[in-house]
Amino acid sequence: MWRTTWRSLLAHKLRLALSGLAIVLGVAFVVGTLIFTDTLSKTFNDLFESTAADVNVTRAAAFDQGLEGTGTGGTATYVPAGLVDEIADVEGVAAVEGNVQAEGVYILDADGEVLDTGGAPGIGISWDTEESLSPTTLVDGRAATGPGEVMIDTNSAEDTGYRVGDTITVLTPGPRVEAELVGTFRFGDEGGLAGASLTAFDTTTAQELLSAPGQFTGIGVGAADGVDPDELADRVAAVVGSDYDVKTASEQAESLSSDFSEALQFINIFLLVFAAIALFVGTFIILNTFSMLVAQRTRELALLRALGASRGQVTRSVLGEALVVGLVGSTLGLAAGYGIAAGLRALFGSFGLTLDGDLVLSTDTVLWAYAVGVLVTLVSAYVPARRAARMPPVAAMRDDVVTAQRGLRRRTVVGAVLAAVGIAALVGGTLSDDGGTGASLVGLGALALILGATALSPVLAVPFLRSVGALLPRIWGTTGRLAQENAVRNPRRTAATASALMIGLALVSAFSVIGASTNASIDELVTGSVRAEFVVSSAVQVPFSGDVAAELAEVDGVDAIMPLRWGQAQLDGRTSFLTAVDPDSLDRSIELSLVDGSTERLGGNGLLVDESTADGRGWAVGDTVEVLTRDGRQQELVVRGVFESNQVIGSTVVSLDSLTAFGGVALDRFLFVDLADDVAPADVRPQLEEVTDAYPVVDLKDRGEFSDEQKSSVDQLLLLINAMLVLSVLIAALGIVNTLAMSVIERTREIGLLRAVGLGRAQLRRMVRLEAVVISIYGAVLGLVLGTLFGVALSRSLADQGITELVVPLPRMAVFLLVAAVIGVLAAVGPARRAARLKVLDAIAQT
Amino acid sequence: MTLPGPQSAALPAARGRTLTKVFGEGDTRVVALDRVDVDFDRGRFTAIMGPSGSGKSTLMHCMAGLDSVTEGQAFIGDVDLSSLDDKALTVLRRDRIGFVFQAFNLLPTLTALENITLPMDIAGRKPDQAWLDQVIDTVGLRDRLAHRPTELSGGQQQRVACARALAGRPDIVFADEPTGNLDSRSGADVLDFLRSSVRRMDQTVVMVTHDPKAAGYADRVLFLADGRIVDEMAEPTAERVLERLKAFDPAEDRTGEADAASRAGVR
Asked: Do residues A756 and A844 lie in contact, with contact meaning Cβ atoms separated by under 8 Å?
C-alpha cells in the first residue's frame, strides 16, 4: 500500500502543493512567533547580562516594583557616596565604583528633534573609570571628563550622524545640556539596546543631572582574582547592612529577566493566539483539500477496495499522503517562519521594540514546527480518509463520479446547540457585573459561536446562495447562473472555504467594534471630564521636567497649571499605582463625579479612589490607609473622596506633596493648562507653544488633539492586531484558490462541454470569478455578523472598564465586505486562467 | 453571425477540402487525416464509420471547429474555420453547430430545460419558442423538463442532449457516438429522434459511430480507414454496413496507429 500512496503523491503534485501551502503558512506563523519571542528574550537577556561588575549594590526596596521598577514610573532610591569607601575595604574587592543611571535622557538630532527610540527609554549613565566594572566599551574618542562633555552609544551616533567633536544637545529630566561629543561607546558585546539610547557623562556631572550630588544609584564591585562572587557578595552584604541589596551579576540578570519574562510571556501568548487562529483556519483548507482529493480519487480508491485492500489500508494510504504533505509543509513552514520572524521584528520595530542581533532558532521551535504541522495535517486528513475507506467497491464501476451529498442533520443539531450555548454565554457576559468574568464569558461564547457557525455554515449556505446568489443570474445572465449553481453544488465545500474567511473577518470586525467604541468612549471622557483648555504631554510617553510647568505658569492668561505625576507605593499591603495631582487646581482642570466625600481635602495626606477600587478594597471616606513607601517608610493616607471611574486620572489619587514624601520622582506626566475665563484659547496658544517648543519631548494639545492622541494608541493596537489577522485572511484567500482550482479540475469535462457548446473564454473566467466572489462574500457576511455580535458583547461587558460608548463602524464593515469581494476576484485569477486554457477536446475526453 | 446568412441551396452545410491532420513528430508522427475531401449536404443524416484509429472522430472534430487542421480547409456553410480565432470559433460553435457527445453531455447543476437552452442562454438570445416546443415534443421529454440530469435515465439524458443540439436551429449537428453508452432500446429512441429531426425538421446531422445498427438509421454512410474516405454507401441498412465492415482487413490498420489493430473490430 505504501507504493500506491507514494505514486498517488507524485501524481497529484499540484493539488498537494496547494494544500501544503496552507500548512506552510500556518507552521510559518507559529515558527515565526517562536523565533521572534526567542530573539526577543535573547536580546533582553543579553542586555541584562551586560553587567560587568561581579557584585552590585543598590538601595533595598521595601517591595518589588516588578517591571515598572525599571521604568520611570518607579521612585528613585539612592546610595550615598560614603558607602563606596566602606566597600573598598572589604577583603577580596579588586575594584569598586559608584554609578548613576536614570531614564529621561534624550539626544536631539541635528534638526532639534528627539532621537526616536520608538518608545524605548533614553538612558543617562555615569561613565565608569574602572573599565573592569563597565558594561560599555569605548569605540571612538575618549571618556567624558567634565560638564561640557558627553558620550553616546554607537547606535545613536549612527542614527543621528553625530561624530566625535560635534556639539550636541541632550535633554535630561533637569536642564537641557549642550555639550561636546567626546566619545562613542558600545554597550555589551553586540551593542544591542533594544532601541534605547545611552548617554554617558562623567560621574560628577551625572550625579548633578540625574541623581543628586554625592548620591549614586548603585555601586559596582569587582572581585579580586580567585575570589568567588557569591562569597564576595556575602562579605559586602555584611558591611553595608540590610538597607542595601547586594547581588552578584548573575543574580541581577536573573531577577531582571524574570521580571521581564512576564511581559515577554504576554507578547508570546498574544502572538501564539494569532498563530493558533492561522492554524485553525489552515485546518479547514487542509480538510477541504483532502476531501476533494479523496472525492476525485473515488474510482481509484474503490478499485483498490475491489482488489482487496482493507478499509484500514485505504485509510492509512490517505493518512500516509497527509503525513508526507505535513512533513514537507512543516519543513517549508520552518523556512518561511524565519521570514515571518523578520517581518514581526520589523513590525514591532515600528511599534517601538527594536531588536538588534540575529534571529534565534531553537531546537524547541523546530520540534514544535513538525509537531504542529504534521498533527494538524493528520487530524484534518482523518475525516476524508475515513470517508475514503467507506467507499463501496462498486463505485469503481460507476461511470460518473458524483460526490455523494451527505445529510446535514447532524451538523445542524451540533451547530445549533453550539450556537445557542455561544449566544447564551455572550448574553451572560454582557450582563455580568464583573468586567473580567464578563469578558471571559464573551470569549468562551465567541469560541462556541464560531464553532457553531462553522458547523452550521453548510446549512446556511444554501438559503444564502439561493437568495443573495440570485443576483448573479440577474446581472450576469447564464454565466452568473452557472456560478451560483456551482457554489451551491457542494454546500460543505463552499461553507468550509467560506469558514476560513469567516473566522478572520469575525475577529477583524469584532476588534473594529471594540476599537470604535473605545475611541468614542475616549472622546466622551475627554470632553466630559477635562476642563482645562490645553493639555501638555509627552509624545513619546516619557516624564518631563517640572520646568515646563513653571514656565507655562508665567504665560499671560494662564490661570493655573496642574501637573499630574505617576508613582507607586504599597497601600494596605498591596502595590498600587498612584496618580499625584495638585489639590488646589484639580477641580479647575479635571471634572470628577464624586460618589462620596469631596476633593477639597486631598491636600496633605488625602486620598481619592474610584468606585471599583473603593468597593474592591473595602475603603470608605474617612478610612485610614497604611502606606509603605519604596524605601521602606511607613506613612498614612486618609480616604477623602470616592469618584466614578475616570480613565484620565486613574483609580488612586494623592497630592503631589504625598508622592514626593513617598520618594516619587519630581517629573511630570501631564500638565493641564487652565486659562482665565476671559481668555480665548486661540489667543494664548502661540505663547504656550513658544514654551513647549523649547522642550522637544512635550507637545501642547487642545482637548480634541489630546483625545486624538489617546485614541492613536488604540488605533495602533488595532493596527497591530489587524496586521496579525491579515495572515488568517491570507490563508483564507489561499483556501478559495485551492477550492476553485480543485473545482476546475473536477469539472474539467463540464468546462469542455461548456466551451464546446459556445461558452467563450472570458465568460468562463467570469463564471469562476463569480463563484469565488459569492463564496468569499458568504464568508464575509457570516464573519461580519459574528464579529459584530462579539464586538458588541465584549464592549458591553467592558462598560465598567471605561468603554462606555457603543459604536458599530458600518462604513468600515462595508469596506471589509468589499475587500472580501476583491479577495474572491484575486483568488479566482489562477483557477480561472487554468479553466480558460483547457483545450476543449482534451477536456471532453477526460475521464 | 447568429443566423446562417443567405446561401445558395446548393452549398453543403459543411465541407472539407484536403483536410489533413498530423499528430506528433518524427517517430511518433501519426497521420490521422490524409487529404480528405468531404461534403455534408443539407437535410441529410450522414454516418461516419471506420475502425478505431481510422480518423473518424478527428474528421468530426476538425469539421466542428473543436480541433485545428494541419492542412486544408473546413467550412461550415461558407465560413472557413481556419480563418477564425478562438473567440469567433466559440461563437460559431454556439450559434451554428449542435453537439451530442458519447457521455457527459449535460451540466449536472442545470435542469433539463436549462441544459437545452444553454447555448442560447450563453449567447443571451431568446429561444424560438415554437421551434423549441417542437423539438421538446419530438424528443418526448415535456414532463421531464424540470428534472436535473441525475434524475434522468441515460437514454433521457442523451435525448436532452439531442434537444439541446437542435434547439438553436444550427446549420449542422455533430454527434459523436451518441448511443455508445446506451442500451439498444434507448439507443433506438435517440436514433429515431435524430432521423426524424432530419426528415421532419430538415436538419443536418453528422454522426460518428461504430455500430452498424446505428449507421442503418442514416441516409448515407462514409467509411474511413487510415485517415482516408475509402467507401461510401447510400440508403444503408445495418446488414449491408456490417458486410462492408467485414471487408476491412485488420492487417491494414497497422499502418495507421500502432495499437489500432488491437482495438479494431472489437465491437
From this structure: yes
Considering CB atoms only, which of A485, A488, A758 is closest to B122? Answer: A758
Q: Distance of CA A600 to CAs A454, A469, A583, A584, Å?
A: 58, 66, 7, 8
Residues A784, A711, single domain; the answer is yes
CB B124 to CB A760 under 8 A?
A: no
* DSSP 8-state assignment for residue A544: B
Residue in chain A closest to B114 (alpha carbons) equals A478
Residues 6+ apart with CB under 8 A from B87: A760, A761
Residue B22 contacts A where some CB pair is shorter than 8 Å: no
Residue from B60, B118, B176 whose CB has the most chain A CBs within 10 Å, to mutate: B118
Residue A757: how many CB atoms within 10 A of its CB? Answer: 24
Co-location of A208 and A257 in the same domain: no
A485 and A586 belong to one structural domain: no
- Give percent above pLDDT 90 in chain A: 11
Of A220, A248, A276, the residue that ends a domain is A248
Q: How confident is the model at residue A774 (pLDDT cuts 50, 70, 90)?
A: very high
Spans of chain B, pLDDT less than 50: 1-8, 251-267
For residue A715, pLDDT beyond 80: yes
* Min Cα–Cα distance to chain A from B66, Å: 6
The amino acid occupying position A486 is N
> pLDDT-derived band of residue A815, with 50, 70 and 90 as boundaries?
very high
CA distance B93 to A532: 79
Which of A481, A486, A756 faces B66 most closely, judged by CB atoms? A756
Confidence band of A398 (pLDDT split at 50, 70, 90): low
Are both A180 and A290 inside the same structural domain? no
Asked whether residue A835 carries a pLDDT value surpassing 90, the answer given is no
| Backbone angles phi and psi of B191, in degrees to 5 | -70, -40
Domains, in order of start, for chain B: 14-250 (3.40.50.300)
Residue A847 pLDDT > 60, yes or no? no
Domain termination residue (choose one: A187, A219, A248) = A248
The pLDDT, as a whole number, for residue B45 is: 93
Give the number of other Cβ atoms within 10 Å of residue A382's Cβ: 16
Cα A671 from Cα A549, distance rounded (Å): 7
HSE-CB for A308 with a 13 A CA cutoff: 0
Instruction: Give residue A394's pLDDT band: very low, low, confident or very high (50, 70, 90).
Output: low
Average pLDDT over residues A438-459: 88
> Which 3 state secondary structure label does DSSP give B41?
coil
How far out from the chain centre does Cα A549 lie?
A: 34
CB-based contacts of B267, cutoff 8 Å, min separation 6: B210, B211
Average pLDDT over residues A489-501: 85
- Is A68 or A400 the better-scoring residue by pLDDT? A400
Provide the CB-side half-sphere exposure for A829 (13 A, CA). Answer: 8
**Other residues' Cβ atoms within 10 Å of the Cβ of residue B87:** 11
For A738-755, b where at least 16 C-beta lie within 10 A, e where not — what string?
bbbbbbbbbbbbbbbbbb
State the residue range of the domain holding A198: 54-248
Chain A residues with beta carbon closer than 8 angstroms to that of B61:
841
- Of the listed ranges A151-165, A242-256, A319-333, the least confidently predicted one is A242-256
What single-letter amino acid sits at A604?
G
**CA separation (Å) from A105 to A150, A606, B99, B244?**
12, 33, 84, 106
Q: Which residues share a beta bridge with A642? A: A596, A609
Q: Are A657 and A603 in contact (CB under 8 A)?
A: yes
- Asked whether residue A656 falls in the same domain as residue A738, the answer is no
CA pair distance A751, A741, nearest whole angstrom: 13
Question: A754 lies in a domain?
Answer: yes
Q: What does R_g of chain A's alpha carbons equal in angstroms? A: 33
Measure the CA dihedral A568/A570/A575/A581, to 10°.
-40
